[in-house]
């Protein structure tokens, strides 16, 4: 991983000016974003949690490496990467600061269900979990992802091939969960519920595989699609209280989006981030938020892996699933925005990691300016 970007004094001053302006001119957006996790002056690495990232396969070691690097820079006290044994040295060489754990894999270098108990044991000593970047696809990988989805007790973000595995298994197919007719994998999860909070971060193609319908580019339709899927998760796996709280709260507010989202009440353990221009973050209680940072610099392989790392890094520090996801989406877009002020093209996903430190400063400055209003 290249070193993080450190601007000179003049550039820092310019970024501070831009942050002040952003907070004043778009106070509704910046003021409604969650505050960043606290970093107490007497904190230590144990204070800020441990992020466990599971993924990677032969030929896709970069994905999980980007996730791990992003979790580090996002502030996790410790970051550990559980990867197939054949790629361990490659992954370990990407960043010096995370540690790596070798896992059982098949001949193609993909994790198998034989790694399940080891992963759960590592997760028990972690604060938050990320599953999916660079995972690869196979029947064994699908079994492993399904078991991790249900069995891990830690808040977890599922991305990339983990989403494809959950879709292939029919985990969110309401009909299949009722009658178990989707085969051996389905029979193993009918009636089961995740033991911890779950965040899903699909791009439109993955979203289509998860739900059976590809979202359009229309803003309102994307909000509806993301919200409906998050509510499906709540309906399938929640206790029903979040949806009931939404029904009660909707008698008091007119809109689900933006500032009114926080008024809907009732925490949900299920969050969906439908990625794309204007990423929509929704939860199972009916709250939905549209991100306003980012640019086409994010339209490159690995950007989603970085987002997953920032989400799990914030979760490790104690952020709620909804706050971690909203904050991470805004930060990654902001990092791309700041990078574009220096060069308009040629961006790669690791640039987002490089610019995260200045994105944190900008985020806090813009939020402070917005709340002064």
Features:
single chain; 373 residues; alpha/beta; UDP-N-acetylmuramoyl-L-alanine:D-glutamate ligase; nine-stranded mixed β-sheet; 15 helices; 9 strands; globular
Describe the 3D structure.
This protein has 373 residues and is an alpha/beta fold. It has a single domain, classed as UDP-N-acetylmuramoyl-L-alanine:D-glutamate ligase (3-Layer(aba) Sandwich), CATH 3.40.1190. It is 47% helix and 10% strand. The chain has a nine-stranded mixed sheet with strand order 3-2-1-4-5-6-7-8-9, with helices on both faces. α14 packs across α15. The longest helix has 24 residues. The radius of gyration is 20 Å and the shape is globular. About 5% of the residues have low confidence.
Major sheet: size, sense and barrel closure?
A: 9 strands, mixed
| Poorly predicted runs of 5 or more residues | 248-265
- Structural class, from helix and strand content? alpha/beta
CATH topology term: UDP-N-acetylmuramoyl-L-alanine:D-glutamate ligase
